[in-house]
Amino acid sequence: MAIDCNGVKIEDRPFDQVREEAIDQLIMNYSHGKLSAEAFERRLDLATNATQHQELVDVVADLTLEPDKQYEQQRERSFSPQYQSGNDTQHERIISVLSSNQHNGQWLVPAEIQVISILGSVELDFSEAIFQHQHVVIRVNNWVGSLDILVPEQVNVVSNMFNIIGSANNKAPSMGGRQAPKIVIEGYSILGSLEVKLKRTMKEKFSAFANQCRDMFGLGKQ
């Protein structure tokens, strides 16, 4: 059993760490064909929604395969932010006037992004973005416009917006480590809106990764 109940009492261990161990073992067993897709989805629901340590212990109690080195390497590649050196881009300006503008896919993120939106809409999707800098600043001038920012869990986001009859909503938890990219949003919004949210839920993220692992081990999605 991957969750070690010896030593420190399970109830005294960090809950998120125990949840991560349980999910890793679920994915490991599913990717090797030890669990059906239906059983995996059901147990993943239990693990992502669990509030007690014992719930996590119970959800993997009958599983025998534990994450190995190959699994850990694949996990690191999938969940670590992408950095790229060279061709360093320092500044980019996005202007949206009565129009819409989207950045998504594997785009290069500059050190500073200036967003000017006048009766327009802008979406910045960082879920597959390639970072050139650990610290990124987004300067916003938003007049009766909307700005949506989509981020993965491993990117930290701080919002320092000034709103005049506007709204700013940051739904993205800062769960990245010290080496993770940090996005700072500053500026103003007049009769406009800013929303920061996760690209995918925790369950969606781990389901996608589990299917990657099945492909890696030659099982595919069944």
UniProtKB/TrEMBL annotation:
Its lineage reads: Bacteria, Pseudomonadati, Pseudomonadota, Gammaproteobacteria, Alkalimonas
Annotated DUF1707 domain residues: 16-63
Taxonomically, the superkingdom here is: Bacteria
For this entry, the protein name equals LiaF-related protein
Q: Cite the Cell wall-active antibiotics response LiaF-like C-terminal domain residue spans from the record.
A: 111-169
Q: Which PANTHER family match?
A: MEMBRANE PROTEIN, MEMBRANE PROTEIN-RELATED
